[in-house]
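Forum > Structural Biology > Help requests

Title: Can anyone predict the 3D structure of F-box domain-containing protein?

Hi all, first post here. I have the sequence for F-box domain-containing protein but no way to get a structure on my laptop. I'd be grateful if someone could post the structure tokens.
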Amino acid sequence: MDRLSLEILAIIVSYLNPSDFIEYVSVSRQWQFAIERYTFRSLRLKSDDYDFFTRVCSDSHRAAAIAELEYDVILPAYSDEQCAKFESEKDEKANNEAFTNAIKRLFETLHLWGNPSNDGAHKMRGRPIMLSLGAYSTTDPRYREAKF
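Reply #1:
Sure, ran it for you. Structure tokens for F-box domain-containing protein below:
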């Protein structure tokens, strides 16, 4: 199995059902890399999952696999009463601060991936990432969980 090229493995992985990846990821290191190249290609990330994201993507092959990243900034929650009103200056300032901090953290990490690490290896190979940004509060009507 370790004699298959990464290109051939990538083709095989593309035909697998993603629910079966867990069975194949432990076949060998080469299979793990091929499956992670596929699964890490397109990620959706919320700012409150950021620490987990940086730990999981600290491996250079995972970071290098990312081609598309959807990043949703979670803004501060607000009350039901505030839901029907315009944003106050205080709320606007809190939202702006939360958004700015989340975006700054993301770009600091992406910047580090483009620079040599302690061992001198570059994590990203100069490949672009398609980045989509969004922002919402979990108390926005569209994102509230149904209350039964």
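The mean pLDDT is 83. The CA atoms of residues 75 and 97 lie 9 Å apart.
Shout if anything looks off.
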